[in-house]
Amino acid sequence: MKSQVIRCRNLPKNPKTYEKIINVKPVGLLIVTLIVGVLITILKPYLAMSGISMIVLSLFCLIVMPDRDLCKFTKDYLVLYNRHNRDECSLIYWDEVVSWHYEWYKTYDQLVIEMIDGSTEIQDMYSIGSIKKSMNHHIPGKMKKNKHFRKDQR
Length: 154
Prior knowledge:
Layout: E1 4-7, E2 20-23, H1 27-43, H2 48-63, E3 69-73, E4 77-80, E5 88-93, E6 97-104, E7 109-115, E8 120-125, H3 129-138
Antiparallel strand pairs: 1-5, 2-3, 3-4, 4-5, 6-7, 7-8
């Protein structure tokens, strides 16, 4: 199998090779919250405290809270950054994926990828919307349907 665990420094450094990058921090949603907070504060002075609260919260999340990559998509492979050692990542080639599915839990979600050698790669996720379109684009028809939601905790 070509898919393997490698050091992150051995990945290509050219950001143009990545079609999509999924991060922990929802930057788009936080920017929308910031803009809405500014608009509320300017247009509705009687709601200024709510607007200022939205501005402060979104700025705090954007500036102070840490962010990291969860996965990166290219036309040939997927990179998962879910290793215990933060210097390593899993490189998964699309032609070696048998199936994938998404599992929901009370406190987290998981992307589960089954490989041709019988191994399974698991990545913690926060939204199926951020991953489903890209997975179906690169490996169409390989999504396994879940018959039930798993609600147990780790």
